[in-house]
Amino acid sequence: MVSSEKKKIRLNLSIEISGLLLLILVSSSVADVVVLNDNNFEKNVGQDRYAFINFYYPGFLTCERLDPQYENLGENIKMANESVLIGKVDCEKNWSICKKYEITVWPTLKWFYKGSLKPKEYEGQWHVQFLSDFANTEAETNLKIETVPSNLVVLTDSNFDETKNVMAVFYASWSVISKALLLASTLYYEIPLSIFKAIKKEIGAELTRLRVKI
Prior knowledge:
The chain is built from 7 helices and 5 strands. The protein has helices spanning 2-31, 41-44, 61-80, 95-100, 128-139, 176-184, 193-203; strands at 34-36, 50-56, 84-90, 108-112, 120-121. The protein has a 5-stranded mixed beta sheet with strand order 1-3-2-4-5.
């Protein structure tokens, strides 16, 4: 009887410790990217360190596609460089901040320099390697991030095999639309804002980056 009670106590204690460890791990992971809002934005941004901020809107596919890349960036920068803050702003809950910085598409990434609330817009690709390269350039750091190589294969006359089932993208290097389609055809890239703007200008249509289907 006593032995059974001891087993129950040990089991309950083990469950409580496991739950506490899980909570600590989750909290640590979330803290890699600082959640900013109306109350703490200016307390963290424009202070004594650089800030790379993701302005996003919950539920949008493009925002969800960026999340793992951005979390990876936050985790690596937090471990290697405390002079750069990686943060995010939920524009659904904090519209006043997003309105102030003229956020019209989601996600939008902006870089803030030390002691300044006037940002520079990031217009590059959304893969973590490009994000870290940009941060390294702006902060004059040398952060190295190991990434998974892309599965995208460049086909040529010499390696094109008509006997295999292949999903291929045929494109022209001089076409802005072709370039955008090529970037969107892999899991590791998303259409950069600069290319998106060029597409709008080229075809003269009212588009929104939120509706790009991958």
